[in-house]
Amino acid sequence: MAERSMAAAELVRFRGGGFEPGLRRGAAWLVLALILAAWQAASSSGLLPALVMPSPLQVLHAFADMWRSGRLTIDLEASLSRVAWGWTIGTAAGLAAGIAMGIWSSARSVGIPVVSALFPIPKIALLPLLILWFGIGEPSKVATIALGVFFPTVITGYSSVDAVPRNLIRMAQSFNVPRHAIIRKILLPGAMPGILAGFRISSSIALILLVAAEMIGAEHGVGAFILQAGNLMQTDQLVAGVVVLSVLGLAISYLLGRLERALLRWG
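^ that's the sequence the OP posted. Answer follows.
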């Protein structure tokens, strides 16, 4: 009887997937290939005029022209420098303020009203004021990106600290663990998953503000290139510039994913 019940137990189907979706990398490439094939077919058949939407082959040729002329390298270097400086400054300041608001009541009492009042303001609307303060050069563009990154990072910072289980902190306090050790060994590691998830949002905001700032006042950069191509009705180069931005966003997402896996290895 015992052997029969054990055999029946072995036949029970496993149901405990735990809502942990995996990645099927081939599916993304398949969908991309289908989209490009349909796009090329619509362009070749005349359903999509080249002036309205160039074909993938035309976009590829425009990308090759950008590469051969050296314009792609110049614009990418300018854009990467701006987004790197702006995102780094905004993230560092936002994390410092957000973690402080998550730990100290006085910082939260002052910070939440200020963030709630200033966060909804479109940061690109402040670019003319920043140009008056910092000039037409790089500092105004970097400041625009940093401001746009700062506020969501603040919110992510103190929300992630709030999400750390308080029973862990109380347990450490019951053993007289010093305050700085609780912050370093419990609060920061516990808040790190939320903070890293916020990095993905802030990096997207940084790219959006980068393009907007370069369209308003820049000679070089991907945003300036897209604006120039649009003004000249060069839709193939315009779409090529948009593709460059998409690839740049994918590269940033990949690097953040590597950072996330490295820092959350303990989890």
